[in-house]
Amino acid sequence: MNLTISKERLLPYFGSKKRILDMFKPSQVLGHRRKERHVYVNNNAPVLLVAHIDTVKTPFLKSACKGSGFDDRLGVFAGHELTKAHPDVFDLLLTDYEETCETTATYFEPEHDYNLVVELDREGEDFVTYGLADETLVAALKKHGFTKAYGSFSDIVSLDSVDCGKVNVGLGTFNSHGQNSGFFIAVFKRQVNRLLSFCDEYKTIPWPSCFDKWQDFRAYTVRDSGKEYTTTYGDWGRCSICGDWSDNCVRLDSDRNAVACEFCAPCCHNNGRYVECGLCGKQIHVTESYYDNIHDCDLCVKCFDLLYYNAKENSYNSIATKSTAKRAKKSYPGLVPVDNSD
Fold it and tell me: What is Dmax (Cα atoms) for the chain?
């Protein structure tokens, strides 16, 4: 499927919530309260796509692939386009209040059984399961080019009414909750085509549900000052990442000066509170870093711009000039910038 990406096509999905709901007015499910509302496009298809209409920053487009609100208006766009193009494969559920962990997916009542649920609400070029998919489904996804990673929360964690395997697929976004967010068009297209390839082969197979929602995050190894140790959830404290108080925190350093709640901890479980920029080697806070899925490393803002900001097009599709590519290659020979504009 060759989805044409342009500012004009994306613009209708970057307005107010009301505008999105009006777009899907025939499919709205209002519920008894505002915080129960959702959209359900039912084609009697075997695969349910999920996205959420709420955002952290006000949705705004500077260009086709740069602005704010891509989490999860890009998922809404992708879900709608896939549902229209392949009504025999996909149904669509749009939720609200996901960003405050009060997702209206809790109130969803399906009108038929599903073989698979796919959320379109993740950065980068991978997928996560939150413990909601078994190893057979993971293996099948890997067969079609997907890469498994780890995540913290999205709508499907609260989607108990659907009894089947569930995954969340990345669409190439970066800095999703920030004011200057965007997505890589090439990554977006690859992920969509992988999903279509997977569904073409497996859409008739009912993937079993898995109920161990936090199986990947109950205990894991973190590294602080070169020392590795195992940490588990259960401590009371104020999250050093988001600032919220929680009785289910984990410590991020050996002397307990930094803790993270259950939603922020998986985002920084590799290197604790700080990560190292893969290009310049600078230590940066995890909330101020970009994960470069192409080169499998974290980047500071300056190096991210060096590799991916195209000054001529005012977008993050590709590297800016040959000189930036030469400097990047000289600074870090193993990190080769690539053009993502396709």
Answer: 61
CATH number at residue 37: 3.40.630.10
* Domain shared by 244 and 198, yes or no: no
How far apart are the C-alpha atoms of 257 and 253, rounded to whole Å?
A: 6
DSSP category for residue 257: S
245 and 197 inside one domain: no
Phi-psi category of 31—alpha, beta or left, where left has phi over 0 and alpha has psi -120 to 50?
left
Q: Convert the pLDDT of each residue in 53-101 to its tens digit.
A: 999 888 989 888 889 899 899 999 999 999 999 999 999 999 998 887 7
Domain count, the chain: 2
Tell whether 196 and 224 lie within a shared domain: no
Task: Give me the amino acid identity at 187.
Answer: V
Same domain, 170 and 226: no
d(CA 128, CA 124): 11
| 237 has a pLDDT exceeding 50 | yes
Cα angle, residue 103 at apex, residues 193 and 16 outer, rounded to 5° = 75
* Domain of 274, in residue numbers: 219-331
Dihedral class, residue 140 (left if φ above 0, else alpha if ψ from -120 to 50, else beta): alpha
At 300-329, the pLDDT tens digits run: 777 777 776 655 555 444 443 444 445 544
What is the residue-averaged pLDDT of the chain?
76
Where is 22: in which H helix or E strand?
helix 17-23
Q: What is this structure's pTM?
A: 0.65
Residue from 71, 125, 114, 65 nearest 92 by CA: 114
Q: Do 31 and 163 belong to one domain?
A: yes
